[in-house]
């Protein structure tokens, strides 16, 4: 249940951050991927992470209410920490990308390397957190079946 509360708190904080971000002029992330050009607004990215946190909170809350055996609390906290690290690194990479091209000139290849590394580690942490949730659910299901 602690994981549900932590993810709900994180979602509320991200919604507040999205509301604060919506007051500033619109900025975007431009991604060119396989001959397709994606433009994603920062407020939309923050909103997507808030919805993700809310979905995780709902999963943990539903598991605590409807499943006879509760999910492992240590794995839940690990999931929260990994997801939070992924969100933070993603935001650092996004805002760093916006700041390195101030004045219209690129800051140099070293900055792009660190930007990509922060983005890659952020995505890896988030996916590792999702894997932790899958392991937690599987472990709980196996323990529930063994107890029968």
Structure explained in plain terms:
- This protein has 148 residues and is mainly alpha-helical.
- Helix content is 75%, strand content 8%.
- The chain has one domain.
- The protein has a two-stranded antiparallel sheet with strand order 1-2.
- A hairpin with a 2-residue loop joins β1 and β2.
- α1 packs antiparallel against α2, α1 packs parallel to α3 and α3 runs antiparallel to α4.
Brief characterization of the structure:
The protein is mainly alpha-helical. The protein has helices at residues 2-21, 42-66, 73-100, 109-146; strands spanning 28-33, 36-41.
Describe how the helices and strands are arranged.
Layout: H1 2-21, E1 28-33, E2 36-41, H2 42-66, H3 73-100, H4 109-146
Largest sheet, described in full? 2 strands, antiparallel
Shape verdict: elongated
Euclidean distance between termini CA atoms = 24 Å
Q: Which structural class fits the helix and strand makeup?
A: mainly alpha
Give the low-confidence spans: none
Specify the number of helices: 4
| Alpha carbon gyration radius | 18 Å
SS elements, strand count: 2
Task: Give the overall average pLDDT.
Answer: 81
SSE arrangement, N to C: HEEHHH
Q: State the helicity in percent bands.
A: over 70%
β-strand amount? 5-15%
Provide the domain count. 1
Strand order of the largest sheet: 1-2
């Amino acid at each position: 249940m602690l994981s549900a509360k932590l993810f709900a708190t994180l979602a509320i904080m991200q919604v507040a951050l999205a509301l604060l971000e919506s007051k500033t002029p619109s900025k975007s992330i431009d991604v060119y991927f396989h001959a397709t050009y994606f433009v994603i607004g920062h407020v939309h990215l923050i909103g997507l992470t808030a919805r993700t946190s809310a979905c995780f909170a709902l999963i943990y809350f539903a598991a605590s209410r409807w499943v006879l055996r509760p999910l492992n609390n240590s794995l839940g906290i690990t999931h929260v920490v990994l997801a939070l690290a992924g969100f933070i690194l993603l935001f650092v990479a996004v805002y760093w990308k916006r700041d390195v091209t101030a004045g219209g000139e690129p800051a140099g290849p070293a900055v792009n390397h660190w930007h990509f590394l922060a983005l890659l580690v952020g995505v890896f942490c988030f996916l590792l957190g999702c894997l932790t949730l899958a392991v937690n659910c599987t472990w709980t299901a196996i323990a529930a079946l063994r107890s029968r």
